[in-house]
Amino acid sequence: MSVNQQAHTGPPYGQPQPGYQGYQQPAYGGQPLPGVPQSQYGGPYNGPMPGYQQPVPPQGYFPSLGFPSKGSPVSLNSDTSSLAPNFIGSLRAPPTSGAPPPASGASLPSGHPGYNQFGHGDVQNGIPASAASMQRPPTSQPFLPGSAPTPVSQPATFQQYGHPPASVQQLSNHMAGMTIASTTASAPPPAGLGYGPPTSAPPVSGIFTATGSGLYTPYTASPGPPPTTVSQGLPLAQPPFPGQPTPTQRLPTQVPGFAPPPPSTGIGPSSYPPATGAPRPPTMPGPPLPGQTLAGPPASQPNHVSSPPPPSTMSGPHPGPPMGGLHGPPPPTHPPQPGYQMQQNGPFGQVRGPQPNYGGAYPGTPNYGTQPGPPAPPKRLDPDSIPSPQLNELPPQQKPRHRIDPDAIPSPIQVIEDDRNNRGSEPFVTGVRGQVPPLVTTNFLVKDQGNASPRYIRCTSYNIPCTSDMAKQSQVPLAAVIKPLATLPPEETLPYLVDHGESGPVRCNRCKAYMCPFMQFIEGGRRFQCCFCSCVTEVPPHYFQHLDHTGKRVDFYDRPELSLGSYEFLATVDYCKNNKFPSPPAFIFMIDVSYNAMKSGLVRLICEELKSLLDYLPREGNMEESAIRVGFVTYNKVLHFYNVKSSLAQPQMMVVSDVADMFVPLLDGFLVNVNESRTVIASLLDQIPEMFADTRETETVFAPVIQAGLEALKAAECAGKLFIFHTSLPIAEAPGKLKNRDDKKLINTDKEKTLFQPQTSFYNNLAKDCVAQGCCVDLFLFPNQYLDVATLGVVTYQTGGSIYKYAYFQLETDQDRFLNDLRRDVQKEVGFDAVMRVRTSTGIRATDFFGAFYMSNTTDVEMAGLDCDKTITVEFKHDDKLSEDSGALLQCALLYTSCAGQRRLRIHNLSLNCCTQLADLYRNCETDTLINYLAKYAYRGVLSSPVKTVRDALINQCAQILACYRKNCASPSSAGQLILPECMKLLPVYLNCVLKSDVLQPGLEVTTDDRAYIRQLVTSMDVAETNVFFYPRLLSLTKADVDSDALPAAIRNSEERLSRGDIYLLENGLNIFVWVGVNVQQSLIQNLFGVSSFSQISNALSTLPVLENPFSKKVRSIIDMLQAQRSRYMKLIIVKQEDKLEMLFKHFLVEDKSLSGGASYVDFLCHMHKEIRQLLS
């Protein structure tokens, strides 16, 4: 399958042309003008000419395709509106005694060792951290009649896009919010959030129960009047506190009493099971002795896990860094209700543990990271096992208090589902300023009518504060995640290519912004006023056109740069290096032929694949063959170059052994056209595995390999990409030689940051040289031991390349994943020698950048290569006041060389609203994008600060964002209520997933290389990728409809949602787990795995067997559908319940406590509430 993005071809604008097959022409800005034909973008590309050209539809792979929607969620007793604070449900205060809680509620210190995603070997293409997806709640739903209680003081309104009307602006102080009210308790609310040590042993494993979705009802809305009473259908209602509304008042719904749960106990830090099979493979300093085989994991061991976990049981706590400054809230001001002890039960019915005596800010407050106290004596009777009187039989003061119901707190699954139902059916039209797009998890079409598609740009907020003081007060980061070359689904039109001839694109004289839909033409069209800097510029004579009665040019709809948010310009020679048009780029394949690479079968596999893959190099438009030239190098301690000139009968090898002063021994015949030299290349690829079959060389070089590729591209005067296949730490004597510096003892110390930094500056300098030449480096790593990804990845990272990692590579289990990754990497659309600049309108400016690139100044992002999967995240700061009337504008301009050697400018424009009320800011935020930014900010922070400092800063910023909302936007309510903005109600759950990720809170089994690898991966991820990486998608395969094409309904990431009789699939963008319960029906096991019993299922399967039955076909089609949505091929891991690999799977159930010390969702919500109360007091 070719992934080639085709080039943009088409005739000059303004001439009637036949319609372009398969595309619906966009109606730019409304009805077409009379006399302007609707289909104007067809015809072949005939070289540079005035006008602009139509894109050809892309072929192949579209990771941006969304997911099918599930049916409408069941609404319980009532809905809440997007303008009423969110209802959280029944809550219970902390107990004062009792047995320890179950594992799912356990808290461990952040330093605890944990079974994590890397528990058995290195991540292969990474197993991420606590993968949390970051869905943004719906923001512009219509109200349904009777859907919500609304405050008396305000009318029911609906979200207005664009510049809000005055009536909407009045609502600033009654924002949509979410309320978790606080139970009154005699025991102070602790913060048992996963930062405190355990206090007792793990509970006995019980039966899994699949709980249904709970009281957190979907938000549907409409312009109808609100009801006058509220019936929330909660298991209990406590009498309101003084000053709180009674249930019959039409005020925001709030549940009295949100008390954080007690610090509960958990599974011992080292209680993970022993590794499957053999111990971790030893390193290979030399050829094996007679009878020895190549080091590698046992067949049953997944290759993405680091090393076998210790088989020990509870081995004592490993306290992590204390959480500084986390003190408890003030004691509750209301007395406890008599009659019921406040008990919190676990999913298996055990009573939760007592409140230990932590030495905190006041009695009952935990001191994070301290040693556990002695376990409390077990309680003899569980009051909850005694039938309670019915609610209406009790006097008001005796109504029972319940623990926080996980079904009653905001559910990512419900938010995603609601957004799909509300916004998935209609196209997203980009013609309105400041419009918040649907979530990345919603499958929707985009119609470009003047603003760039959200597939290209997503913002943390679409309504920017007018002043810097307001921005500082809210602490909401203002950032955009930009994916300039994003792949579009086939139903959407690629950016049109505009050719203005030798004069080039029309630009502002002062700030050099490119012509765009927001420029204002004046003086009858003779001049235009820049929308970014307000400078007036003369319109060039060839570009002049008259204005109509509205002030628009009469050719408005004929010119993409006037009517569309995204388009391309053909660049003139002025935009080229040395004022010379570029040559087509080159691909150089550089293969490690050392002992490990040969013995694993890797070299033979690569050579076989390249024979066919070279026919699928990227090409443009109607080109019959790719313009890209190819070259080949093999290496161990020395480098071998190959002459594959078409006139040769056999390839010729030239060896360079002086790696200290690297040069390319041949120019003619090294870089060749594939079709012309096909027979010589095929002969070479046949010979390489044979030439080195008996090698005994174990040492490798690395930096000289990059230098060789760089010198080859310099000699050919072209840009290009190096594909390097490398297996070991480069310890041979050569520039860039590295030593093994892996040291687990540095974790949780101030020196931990050195593990993420390169060990030498040599590679930074080499990266700078590569960027200057347009030499991008893609790295495929196959380590059997420590490799120093933090150093080897520097050149890849700074040149805009990609890293792929396959630890303990084995042909039978890893071949499919590696070959799929290689095929996509070679075929995908890529721009070379790229420079990106982001311009903004007066009042804000781009101040910070995150991603895989190099910067030689403060404004230009330079990338030797930029592919369709890479994103650049840009942060903005105020440098002046903004105006509500004019809003704010962004223009991203990317200058790059296409794969055919054409120099182009790709332009994306976006207009945002500006606000003077904080409520408008909070109403227009995008949580998924916010989490993408916060994760990248934190992952960069670990390079220069202790991890604990980075974690604390994240928690503090999140608390400040929510405290500002509570103080300035929410209706007055008890301090015991947690109130979250509607658009940010998932911020706590997603932020907790980032905090629990292996970069910020590793278990003992996570290798240093894993952490460096994931840190680099996440920094280039788009919003959809971080979304599923941090909050993985969990599907019940048993519930899948075999007759439908739709995916089965997703469920929340918690162990208590799993049933022993079902099969589940979990995916996070890097791995797919298939979890099989012990009580699954034998017929299902037979249909899916082709074996007759649970015990016969093999953990070593890397693909499901192809069986001719509906269930097998359905599950394999689901996996294929998920693989097609991701930019990397995901590793399949089979997990049997109660098997050793299950702890690895549980690491991704991110709503539960993690063994590395991460808090559960409920506990973290309590902790955030405490932090917010502290800030407000």
Automatic annotation (TrEMBL):
UniProt domain Sec23/Sec24 helical: residue ranges: 927-1026
Keyword set, alphabetical order: Cytoplasm, Cytoplasmic vesicle, Endoplasmic reticulum, ER-Golgi transport, Membrane, Metal-binding, Phosphoprotein, Protein transport, Transport, Zinc
InterPro entries according to UniProt: ADF-H/Gelsolin-like_dom_sf, Beta-sandwich_Sec23_24, Gelsolin-like_dom, Gelsolin-like_dom_sf, Sec23/24_helical_dom, Sec23/24_helical_dom_sf, Sec23/24_trunk_dom, SEC23_SEC24_subfamily
UniProt subcellular location: Cytoplasm, Cytosol; Cytoplasmic vesicle, COPII-coated vesicle membrane; Endoplasmic reticulum membrane
Domain of life, source organism: Eukaryota
PANTHER family, A to Z: PROTEIN TRANSPORT PROTEIN SEC24C (PTHR13803:SF5), SEC24-RELATED PROTEIN (PTHR13803)
Protein name per UniProt: SC24C protein
Organism of provenance: Calidris pygmaea
